[in-house]
TrEMBL record:
The keyword Transport applies. It is found in: Late endosome membrane; Lysosome membrane. Its EC number is 7.2.1.3. Transmembrane reductase that uses ascorbate as an electron donor in the cytoplasm and transfers electrons across membranes to reduce iron cations Fe(3+) into Fe(2+) in the lumen of the late endosome and lysosome. Reduced iron can then be extruded from the late endosome and lysosome to the cytoplasm by divalent metal-specific transporters. It is therefore most probably involved in endosomal and lysosomal cellular iron homeostasis. This is Lysosomal membrane ascorbate-dependent ferrireductase CYB561A3. It comes from Sakesphorus luctuosus. Gene3D superfamilies: 1.20.120.1770. Its cofactor is heme b. Residues 33-240 form the Cytochrome b561 domain. It is an enzyme of class 7 (translocase).
Length: 256
């Protein structure tokens, strides 16, 4: 039997590599798509609360509650997702790492502040109207996510931003930090989607707008939940993509 020619060898073993190369989407257009999706999620949750739920207020009534979904989606999902993807930007792969650390930590801190304000809104609404706190699965999941998020930020700040943190500690904690980063994002998405569903069950009760009849508000909010879920899946997929990971380096610059 004749040995395969160079052309035949190229067609055989190299086909999977060519297919993978064709499917290798550049990061910038993906980032633009993901950013547009995040803005869309924030716009839709704001529209839902403004158009169907009566708008926003700080008087402790139902309009105070409306700050809760807007701030949680903006902070716990969109801002947090943006913070998670900072090191996937190709410009971060060379040069000083400290500015990107500050951007990553700043976005995460902004997400945390918005999340705390969102929690304050829902607790004020509950307390002003005599509604019990922390009884639903959504509330347990949401508060657990926020507590895990706060621990993640505090430990990450101490390990990666403080100059006296030893190199061995950073190397030991880095995979743990990455793992919990993706975990917190998935929990955030689950908390937001369950919260949307819970709000629809509580709000759509009368005979003309019952949730089971799928009125316009239900269709709108369900679509919002699907888009939030899609945003989270895309972020986790980007974090898992090997070709978008920042190359590890043993240089002094990478260990600043």
């Amino acid at each position: 039997m004749a040995a395969p020619s160079d052309d035949e060898g190229a067609v055989g073993p190299r086909c999977p590599q060519r297919s993978m190369a064709m499917l290798d989407i550049p990061f910038p257009p993906f980032c633009a798509l993901l950013g547009s999706l995040g803005v869309l999620c924030v716009a839709l949750v704001g529209t839902w609360c403004q158009h169907w739920r009566g708008g926003f207020s700080l008087d402790g009534g139902s309009r105070t509650f409306n700050w809760h979904p807007v701030l949680m989606v903006t902070g716990l999902v969109v801002f947090y997702g943006a913070a998670a993807l900072v090191y996937r930007i190709p410009y971060t792969w060379n040069g000083p790492k400290l500015p990107w650390k500050l951007l990553h930590g700043g976005l995460a801190l902004g997400a945390f502040i918005l999340t705390v304000l969102g929690l304050a809104a829902v607790f004020r609404f509950h307390n002003s109207n005599g509604i019990p706190n922390m009884y639903s699965l959504h509330s347990w999941m949401g508060l657990g996510t926020v507590l895990l998020f706060s621990c993640q930020w505090a430990v990450g700040f101490g390990a990666f931003l403080l100059p006296w943190a030893p190199t061995w500690l950073r190397q030991l904690y880095k995979p743990i930090h990455v793992f919990f980063g993706s975990t917190i994002l998935m929990l955030s998405v689950a908390s937001c989607v369950s919260g949307i569903n819970e709000k629809l069950f509580f709000s759509l009760k009368n005979g003309t707008t019952e949730y089971k009849l799928l009125p316009a508000e239900a269709v709108f909010a369900n679509t919002l939940g699907i888009l939030i879920l899609l945003f989270g899946v895309l972020v986790v997929g980007a974090l898992a993509r090997p070709s978008w990971k920042r190359p590890d380096s043993d240089s002094l610059d990478s260990r600043q």
